[in-house]
Design goal:
By secondary structure, the protein is α+β, with helices and mostly antiparallel strands. 45% of the residues lie in helices and 21% in strands. It has ten helices and nine strands. It has a six-stranded antiparallel beta sheet, with helices on both faces. A hairpin with a 2-residue loop joins strand 4 and strand 5. The longest helix is centred in the last third of the chain and has 19 residues. The radius of gyration is 20 Å and the shape is globular.
């Protein structure tokens, strides 16, 4: 039984190493060690196995690691038939062409949101959204949409987590959630990222539950609060149509 626990712990640690690459494309051994809280010698043994199996590769020039081709090989075998990132891409491209700004799709994953799809604006000055980026649920239009349409118990669990930022007032946040549900959208201006503004709406599935958050974002020089509110009905209609596709 003890051997089994050790084996499972090694698997968990190896997976923790792979998840570090959601934070950065390339990481040094010391950076990985710091991120997962393990001694460098332990990380070195685990990452050597991952490298041998092709899940990570080491750049000999920088001595940094990045994800290997084995990850890509596995991803090609994913079923895309029900993947919203694939199914909704054409509709997102159409929305980008209509509004001229970057369009993103987010899912909630525990206490974070993850960008699962993005269509970049074609304008010279634009906000570039990277797929796979994880962001906190405490700030940002898409974050608040995902929380606003979650169950009351999920909301309270999130707000009462020990790592909830002290700078984000819980009561004010609750009022914002209620306002989002009433209006059907959320806006944010330089809330998470300087110079960036966004409007987000929920995509509801056929059972009436939130499936994802759809957002449009861009530079504040083009997206004032008034402009974001004007775009909200367009996003809401797009989200309604997307909801019928998933």
């Amino acid at each position: 039984m003890e051997d089994r626990k050790i084996t499972v712990r090694a698997v968990e640690r190896a997976l923790d190493i792979l998840m570090c690459f959601t934070k950065s494309h390339e990481l040094a051994l010391t950076e990985i060690s710091s991120l997962i809280g393990l001694h460098k010698s332990t990380v070195h043994r685990l990452i050597a196995t991952l490298e041998e199996k092709g899940f990570v590769v080491r750049d000999s020039r920088t001595d940094k690691y990045r994800l290997g081709m084995k990850i890509w090989e596995l991803s090609t075998h994913l079923s895309h038939s029900d993947d919203p990132a694939v199914k909704l891409l054409p509709a997102m491209e159409s929305l980008r062409d209509k509004l001229g700004e970057t369009v993103s799709l987010y899912l909630r994953d525990g206490a974070e949101r993850i960008r699962i799809q993005a269509v970049q604006s074609n304008q010279a000055v634009r906000r570039v959204a990277q797929v796979g980026t994880r962001l906190p649920l405490s700030v940002g239009a898409s974050s608040k949409v995902l929380v606003a349409y979650a169950s009351a118990s999920d909301q309270e669990e999130l707000l009462n987590k020990p790592d909830w930022p002290d700078a984000v007032d819980k009561e004010q946040y609750r009022r914002q959630l209620a306002d989002i549900v009433e209006k059907g959208y959320a806006i944010s201006i330089e809330e998470r990222e300087p110079g960036a503004a966004a409007v987000a709406v929920p995509i509801m599935d056929r059972s009436g539950k939130i499936a994802a958050a759809l957002s449009m974002s861009g530079p504040v020089s083009r997206l004032s609060a008034k402009k974001l509110r004007e775009y909200a009905p367009v996003l809401k209609e797009a989200a309604r149509e997307m909801g019928m596709m998933i």
